TrEMBL record:
It holds the Pfam family MazE-like. This is DUF3018 domain-containing protein.
């Protein structure tokens, strides 16, 4: 049986995986809800309607804005 050499990726692809890996990160793939599905859109609208005007709305928006403004490494 012969051993085959692993395929080499492009330098950009290798950096994409190796730099974070070197920094202690691990690539994880997740299944997430599809936001283009009608049932997802309906549920998002339902939850937004519940939150609209509630005292928790300002806190939730603050969390979202903070995450959006998170500094790049």
């Amino acid at each position: 049986m012969t051993q085959t050499k692993p395929r080499e990726g492009s330098p950009k692809a290798l950096r994409y995986h190796r730099v974070p890996q070197r920094d202690g990160m691990k690539l994880v793939r997740l299944w997430v809800p599809d936001p283009s599905r009608p049932d997802f859109i309906e549920e998002a609208a339902r939850q937004a309607a519940i939150l609209r005007g509630a005292p928790e709305e300002a806190e939730a928006l603050n969390v979202i804005e903070t995450a959006f403004d998170w500094p790049e490494p």
